[in-house]
C-alpha cells in the first residue's frame, strides 16, 4: 500500500551504502517514476544527469576542490566528505530544473514539481530496497562549471543512491493534528 511505502521512506546516506551496483534497468525505472510527477502547464521542468563509474569520481574531485577554492577556512572533514560521497554511491543523479522559457508558471512551481519528481524517485528506491539521499550543498551554484547547463537550467542538488545492509530506524513525526487547522 502506498501509505506504508511513504512511511517507510528514509534518507540513507553514502556512508551506509555497500558496493552493490544498481542495474541500469532499475535506474531507468526510477527515472520513469520521476517523469510522472505533477507538472503545471505541462512544463515538465525536471532534468537529471546520471553519474556512474568515473564520472562520480570527477564530481567528488570537483566539489572538494571548489569547496577549498571558495571557503576561507575549508574544513578537512567536509572536503573529504565532498570527495568520498560520490565514490561511495552506486549512482549519483544531479537534480536539475529547466525553467520554462515562456515563464508561464512561477519559478517556485517548477521547483516544487521537480521536488515531486524526486519524491517519486525516492519512493521507487524505497520499494526497490535502494537507499538514497538528496543533498543540496551551496556548491550547486557552480555546477555550470562541471555540467553543460541549458539557458534557464539550474542544479538543485544531488540524489545519492546505493544499496545498504543496515536496519533503518523507524520514522518519527509529530501528530498531524499539531499542524492542521480546520475551518467549517
If you had to describe this structure to a student in words, what would you say it looks like?
It is a single chain. This protein is α+β, with helices and mostly antiparallel strands and 184 residues long. The chain has a single domain, classed as NADH Oxidase. It has 5 helices and 4 strands; from the N terminus they run H-H-E-H-H-E-H-E-E. A 4-stranded antiparallel sheet has the order 1-2-4-3, with helices on both faces.
SSE layout:
Blueprint (H helix, E strand, L loop, with lengths): L1 H7 L15 H11 L11 E6 L2 H17 L5 H13 L2 E8 L8 H22 L1 E6 L17 E11 L21
Antiparallel strand pairs: 1-2, 2-4, 3-4
Protein traits:
184 residues, alpha+beta, 5 helices
Mean pLDDT, as a whole number?
A: 97
* Poorly predicted runs: none
Q: Profile the largest sheet.
A: 4 strands, antiparallel
Radius of gyration: 18 Å
CATH class: Alpha Beta
What's the overall geometry? Answer: globular
Strand order of the largest sheet: 1-2-4-3
Question: SSE order, as H and E?
Answer: HHEHHEHEE
| CATH architectural name | 3-Layer(aba) Sandwich
In short:
38% of the residues lie in helices and 17% in strands.
Amino acid at each position: 500500500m502506498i501509505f506504508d511505502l511513504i512511511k517507510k521512506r528514509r534518507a540513507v546516506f553514502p556512508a551506509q551504502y555497500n558496493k552493490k551496483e544498481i542495474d541500469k534497468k532499475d535506474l531507468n525505472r526510477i527515472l520513469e517514476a520521476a517523469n510522472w510527477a505533477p507538472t503545471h502547464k505541462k512544463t515538465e521542468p525536471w532534468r537529471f544527469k546520471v553519474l556512474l563509474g568515473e564520472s562520480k569520481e570527477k564530481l567528488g574531485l570537483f566539489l572538494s576542490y571548489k569547496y577549498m577554492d571558495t571557503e576561507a577556512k575549508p574544513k578537512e572533514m567536509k572536503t573529504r566528505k565532498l570527495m568520498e560521497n560520490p565514490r561511495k554511491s552506486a549512482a549519483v543523479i544531479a537534480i536539475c530544473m529547466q525553467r520554462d522559457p515562456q515563464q508561464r508558471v512561477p519559478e517556485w512551481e517548477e521547483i516544487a514539481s521537480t521536488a515531486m519528481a524526486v519524491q517519486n524517485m525516492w519512493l521507487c528506491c524505497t520499494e526497490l530496497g535502494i537507499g538514497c539521499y538528496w543533498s543540496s550543498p551551496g556548491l550547486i551554484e557552480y555546477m555550470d562549471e562541471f555540467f553543460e547547463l541549458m539557458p534557464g537550467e539550474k542544479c538543485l542538488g544531488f540524489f545519492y543512491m546505493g544499496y545498504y545492509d543496515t536496519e533503518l530506524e523507524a520514522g518519527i513525526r509529530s501528530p498531524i493534528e499539531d499542524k492542521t487547522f480546520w475551518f467549517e
